[in-house]
Amino acid sequence: KRQQRGVGFRIPKKSFRLCVREEYGTRALDEPAVVLRPTALQREIELRTTTRQIAGFLRSYAGRTMWS
Question: Which domain of life does the protein's organism represent (predicted)?
Fold first, then answer.
């Protein structure tokens, strides 16, 4: 009979995280700034914010490169 080697991996214990669900998504109470599962409303807000940032950058960049 062969002896088993100690090869393998350890599975960590499952941890419990207390969460709060709101209209923007599910957040963890220990890290309220992080949205674990965003809702459609949160995704739309993020897309609109990103669009405004890009549009503002393009407006300012186009103003600098135009020849007068």
Answer: Eukaryota
Q: What is the DSSP secondary structure assignment for residue 51, as one 8-state letter? A: H
Which phi and psi (to 5°) does residue 36 adopt? Answer: -75, -45
Q: How far apart are CA 31 and CA 37, in angstroms?
A: 13
Q: Where are the beta strands (DSSP E) in the chain?
A: 19-22, 25-28, 35-38
Q: Which residue has the tokens 């963890």?
A: 28
Using an 8 Å Cβ cutoff, are 18 and 27 in contact?
Answer: no
CB 37 within 8 A of CB 25: yes
Please give the model's pTM, rounded to 2 decimal places: 0.58
pLDDT digits (tens, 9 = 90+) for 7-21: 667 777 778 889 999
Backbone angles phi, psi at 67, to 5 degrees: -90, 140
